[in-house]
Inverse folding.
């Protein structure tokens, strides 16, 4: 005989039963978050109908993600990255007016204490890779140059590793620098053409992407954080449009407005001024920052 439902958990009422347990929560944001999470997770479980073994696999996977994480390695962020969640959170929090430079993910390899460098300096300290002059302007949305804008740039070396991944192999602060614009908003520095590289794939997130038949490559890019008094800080990358992985970034970071070609320059005099071999490359891109409201 069917028992009367007196509020015990059933497959049918699972969402309402669990949500009602925190109906008196005095933190409305937490209540909202948990309401939605319970709804979506229960809906997913009802659709997937996992076996007990599959559920245990999921628990073991999340446990392994936790064990792989420490002060240096953040496997949960990597999981969020490969699921497109990092880019979605970034998009929601960085809606910009038409014409403004777009944002993308920060990634794990930024250093807060990179050295301030003179405009024009070479950030490549390991003498590897194709030499490139990176230049452009930092402007507001009306096209007015922004003076004293801070340009914090970092990139992987020609072997596809950041200095922090190869301590003792690469010089400290290789391919990093902080530059400040003058009155004209212009910036320029010397670097190397970035190459595509793999996100760290020696953990459970790498196992997951392999099981899904996905690759772990990120298309070649330079990372930037641009900031200036009175303007919203911009965290972004500039990508090589010719990179073979440009349409399949492992972390979904590419946007059409963040592509910038490398032009080959054959100019022996200019090469000599730059202390480059001729021919060399130029990559030119203007950043448009949004005024704080
Ligand atoms: C990066 O571009 O540095 C990066 C971003 C997300 C995950 C791993 C690396
Ligand atoms: Fe990167």
């Amino acid at each position: 005989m069917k028992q009367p439902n007196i509020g015990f958990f059933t497959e049918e009422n699972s969402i309402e039963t669990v949500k009602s347990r925190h109906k008196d929560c005095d933190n409305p944001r937490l209540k909202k978050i948990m309401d939605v999470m319970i709804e979506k997770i229960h809906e997913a479980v009802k659709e997937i109908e996992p076996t007990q073994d599959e559920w245990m696999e999921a628990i073991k996977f999340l446990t392994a993600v936790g064990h792989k994480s420490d002060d240096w390695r953040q496997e949960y962020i990597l999981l969020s990255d490969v699921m497109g969640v990092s880019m979605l959170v970034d998009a929601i929090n960085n809606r910009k007016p038409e014409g403004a430079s777009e944002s993308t993910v920060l990634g794990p390899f930024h250093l807060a204490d990179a050295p301030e460098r003179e405009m024009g300096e070479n950030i490549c300290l390991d003498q590897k890779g194709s030499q490139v002059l990176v230049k452009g302007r930092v402007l507001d949305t009306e096209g007015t140059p922004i003076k004293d804008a801070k340009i914090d740039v970092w990139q992987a070396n020609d072997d596809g590793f950041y200095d922090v991944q190869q301590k003792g192999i690469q010089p400290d602060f290789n391919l990093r620098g902080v530059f400040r614009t003058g009155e004209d908003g212009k910036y320029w520095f010397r670097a190397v053409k970035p190459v595509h590289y793999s996100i760290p794939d020696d953990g459970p997130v790498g196992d997951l992407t392999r099981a899904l038949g996905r690759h772990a490559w990120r298309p070649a890019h330079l990372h930037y954080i641009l900031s200036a008094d009175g303007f919203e800080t911009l965290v972004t990358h500039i990508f090589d449009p010719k990179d073979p992985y440009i349409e399949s970034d492992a972390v979904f970071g590419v946007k059409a407005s963040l592509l910038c070609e490398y032009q080959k320059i054959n100019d022996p005099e200019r090469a000599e001024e730059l202390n480059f071999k001729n021919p060399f490359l130029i990559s030119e891109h203007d950043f448009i920052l949004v005024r704080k409201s």
User: Anything to note?
Assistant: Residues 28 and 83 are 27 Å apart (CA to CA). The chain has a mean pLDDT of 97.
